[in-house]
From TrEMBL:
It comes from the Bacteria. This is Farnesyl pyrophosphate synthetase. Gene3D superfamilies: Farnesyl Diphosphate Synthase. InterPro entries: Isoprenoid_synthase_dom_sf, Polyprenyl_synt, Polyprenyl_synt_CS. Its cofactor is Mg(2+). Belongs to the FPP/GGPP synthase family. It comes from Lactobacillus crispatus. Keywords: Magnesium, Metal-binding, Transferase. One of its GO terms (molecular function) is metal ion binding.
Amino acid sequence: MNNSQPWQKYPLIRKPLEEVNQLIQATIRTPYSDLQDALLEMASNGGKYLRPSLLILSAQIASKKETVSKQIIQLASSIEILHMASLIHDDIIDDSDERRGKISIQARFGKDTAVYAGDLLFTHFFDLILNAISEQDYMIKNAHTMHHLLAGELGQMAERFNLSQDFNDYLTNVKGKTAALFRLAAEEGSHFGNGDEQTTQALASFGENLGIAFQIVDDILDYTGGKHLNKPTLEDLTTGVYSLPLLLALSKKELREQLVPLLEKKRQMSKNDIEQIQKILLNSSVIDETHALAEQYTNRALANLAQLPQTNATVLLKKMTRKLVNRTL
């Protein structure tokens, strides 16, 4: 296990997440050496396990118990494996050389191996949920979540280099590509932790609001975080994916006039062009405005938690929510 795993500092979820880590390592075994090396390297590369943590804490809140069942461990593992698969395919699409501050699977092992690695993880995801779930409703929810993930990615792809997108377009795509998995983790954890309908719906809404806030902060970090947070600065901008700070800037006439001539160069933008775009945004109010939107969705998430029993798991989930949104900039 990677000693840099941030969840090791939280006793309430440390043991369950160690079990998740072990199950993932066991699940992704394959006789194909390239795939095996690629997947094991990714599994040990310092993932934050946010989605498994959310599922486990939601189960603890719903059950009012700090122990979790084998079923919850399986579901938490399935969520992380689905997330890993989506990251691998994202890196292929974006031709990204880095993932979690290290060389990506597609850069190190080639695109063929990366495609197969992602596909193999999707099959492991289905294997785990088939073993863990007998209820048709939640099998359908998992299938619908995969649909939402794909719809979000396709929506983002359709908007590449589109200078006319607005916040509603952005929000639709984020609800799919990021928030859907957060929502599923919280909802599934509550349901299979024997939570009542009110608790499960509150946690589902919490997951969605947290997922939106998380993505908005990620967008801010693309402009302000740089290598400090293992995020190559403005990596999305060069592929035509316009994140929220840029969309807010494009909605302002004086900033739009400065930005459009640079953005119209598309993939021909130079490093100097990209640095100029970054400077325009950092010298404006849009980063603060984007922060305000992140806070808005964070407050919605915290309001969802306020409806729940105030257990140790609830307290930790509040703490983690604030920590995620207040990541170092």
